[in-house]
Specification:
Mean pLDDT: 92
Shape: globular
Radius of gyration: 16 Å
Largest sheet: none
Strand content: under 5%
Order of helices and strands: HHHHHHH
Distance between the termini: 39 Å
Number of helices: 7
Oligomer: single chain
Length: 131
C-alpha cells in the first residue's frame, strides 16, 4: 500500500509553469506544488466561492463583471474565515515534506495562494453561477 505522501503527489503529478535554477524557493514551490493543487482542486474551489456568495445574500450574482472581480478580491482578502478555509483546501493536499517547506514561509505562500486563486476565479467568471 502506498503512503499518503506518494498518493497525494500522484494525484497532481505535473509541474505547472517553468522551473529554472535562478528561481526563488517560493517560485519553485508555487510551480511544483501550489499550481498543480489549485488545478486539481478547481471544481471544489469554484463551489466554495458559489456557496460563500450564496450565503452572503446572493449579491455577487447580480453584479457587473467589474464589480464581480472586486467582490472576489474583497471576499478573499477581508473575510479571514473564508480565506483560511481556502488555504486549508490547498494545504490539505501537501505532502509532509511540502508542509515543512510551507511552514518556513507560510505568510508569503498564503499570499501567493490567494493571489493565484483570485486570478483563477476572475478568469472563470462564467463558471461562478448559482446552480
Amino acid at each position: 500500500m502506498k503512503d499518503r505522501d506518494t498518493q497525494v503527489i500522484e494525484l497532481r503529478n505535473e509541474t505547472l509553469g517553468k522551473v529554472t535554477e535562478g528561481m526563488s524557493t517560493d517560485e519553485m514551490f508555487q510551480n511544483n506544488t501550489l499550481r498543480p493543487i489549485l488545478k486539481f482542486q478547481n471544481n471544489l474551489l469554484l463551489q466554495l466561492f458559489i456557496s460563500y456568495a450564496t450565503r452572503n445574500k446572493n449579491v455577487f450574482f447580480t453584479l457587473s463583471l467589474d464589480k464581480k472581480c472586486s467582490y472576489i478580491e474583497k471576499a478573499t482578502t477581508t473575510d479571514i474565515a473564508f480565506r483560511n478555509q481556502l488555504i486549508g483546501v490547498v494545504v490539505g493536499l501537501f505532502s509532509v515534506e511540502e508542509y515543512i517547506e510551507y511552514t518556513k514561509n507560510s505568510s508569503n505562500l498564503n499570499k501567493r495562494i490567494i493571489t493565484m486563486l483570485i486570478e483563477r476565479w476572475k478568469s472563470q467568471l462564467q463558471l461562478l453561477e448559482k446552480n
